[in-house]
């Protein structure tokens, strides 16, 4: 497994209203989307055999939401910082965040990055992906490390399913490519999010999506570095 986070999560009441990160000469911001910034220290994790921190997953999910699928109102991408807070919110707080702020009842598909931290703060040792699909009446769980994140994912699903009006949806552990090392769970989550969104765009369903190929995993770090370089030109 791989450490899931290296920066603290926002408080439960201000998940989407964090202050814009300040620039630092020692660790400059290389790219920024909305309130999700990547610093040099974050991007350096992409260059070697390192686990990905929450900043990278937050940034990539923001990229999917704000750029790649900006015109697709069927999708909601839930960042790790947001999902970690959701685990500890009551129904009133969840309603304010998901229904009032993000119109989740109008979203057929939610892509949720989950880690196995047992607190509101940073931590955890593994990332996985939950996809809530209204058309399939299911919560699909994709875990690249033998289902080790099933308990955390089910706990999150149980906390949010009433607010999502998906009380009767099934929780389904899905077959997916397993990581060949102990640090690539974050890369697997990013690649699975890519593949599943592409599939859903064509078929309006998650059912039937095929496992990733190992070559996709191997190529993703360089692709992410190029993406950060491209987006960084707009800072």
Commentary on this structure:
The chain has 235 residues and is an alpha/beta fold. It has one domain (23-232): 3-Layer(aba) Sandwich (Adenoviral Proteinase, Chain), CATH 3.40.395.10. Helix content is 37%, strand content 16%. It is built from 7 helices and 7 strands. It has helices at residues 40-44, 54-68, 80-86, 91-101, 150-160, 185-203, 214-232, and strands at 29-33, 36-39, 75-78, 109-115, 127-133, 138-142, 170-174. The strands form 2 sheets. A 5-stranded mixed sheet has the order 3-4-5-6-7, sandwiched between helices. Strands 1-2 form a two-stranded antiparallel sheet. Strand 1 (29-33) and strand 2 (36-39) form a beta hairpin. The longest helix is centred in the last third of the chain and has 19 residues, at 185-203. The radius of gyration is 17 Å and the shape is globular. The N and C termini lie far apart (34 Å).
Strand content: 15-25%
CATH fold topology: Adenoviral Proteinase, Chain
Residue stretches low in confidence (pLDDT < 50, at least 5 long) are 6-19
What pattern of helices and strands is seen along the backbone?
A: EEHHEHHEEEHEHH
| Domains (count) | 1
Structural class: alpha/beta
Mean pLDDT: 88
Distance between the termini: 34 Å
Secondary structure: number of strands: 7
Protein name: Sentrin-specific protease 8-like
Region (Disordered): 1-23
Family: Belongs to the peptidase C48 family.
Domain Ubiquitin-like protease family profile: 36-196
